[in-house]
Amino acid sequence: MHSLEHGAVWITHGKSITAPDLHMLTEMVSSTPYAFLSPYTPQSTPIVLTAWGHQLKVNEASDPRVKEFLEKYVQGEQTPEKGAPCTSGEM
Q1: Which of 54, 83, 84 shows the shortest CA–CA distance to 68?
Q2: C-alpha 43: how far from its chain's center?
Q3: Cα distance between residue 74 and residue 39, in whole Å
Q4: How far is it, in rounded angstroms, from Cα 80 to Cα 13?
Q5: Beta strand 35-39 pairing with 47-51
Q6: Count of CB atoms within 10 A of residue 21's CB?
Q7: What is the mean pLDDT of residues 24-41?
Q8: CA triplet 22, 90, 5: central angle to 5 degrees?
Q9: Rg of the chain (C-alpha set)
Q10: Measured between alpha carbons, how far is 21 from 7 in angstroms, rounded to an integer?
Q11: For the whole prediction, is pTM greater than 0.70?
């Protein structure tokens, strides 16, 4: 949660995610600062993106709203501690 306060977007995936979608999300996260990915099996959709005060549930990584969410909320206007690092134990 503290990472979200710094402007990060947390992407979680459930059991029903496909291998291609997981690969696509991994690529997105590796090229997007302030974004991270982890499994979270009790969710109701294959993919959930969470930012401070905002959440998006989608069925596929190719959904255009995924990219839009990242563009809008990574270090977006909702960020309480914008510019604070999410590295070196600061997450």
Answers
A1: 54
A2: 14
A3: 20
A4: 25
A5: unpaired
A6: 20
A7: 94
A8: 75
A9: 12
A10: 24
A11: yes
Q: How far apart are CA 49 and CA 61, in angstroms?
A: 10
What CA–CA distance (Å, rounded) separates 40 from 65? 20
pLDDT for the residue numbered 80: 66
**Cβ atoms < 10 Å from Cβ of 6:** 19
- The structure tokens listed for 21 are 């979608």
- Report phi then psi at 80, rounded to 5: -70, -40
Produce one character per residue of 46-77: b if its CB has 16 or more CB atoms within 10 Å, e if not: bbbbbbbeeebebeebebeebeebbeebbbbe
| pLDDT on residue 88 | 54
Beta strands (DSSP E) in 1-91 are 9-13, 35-39, 47-51, 54-58
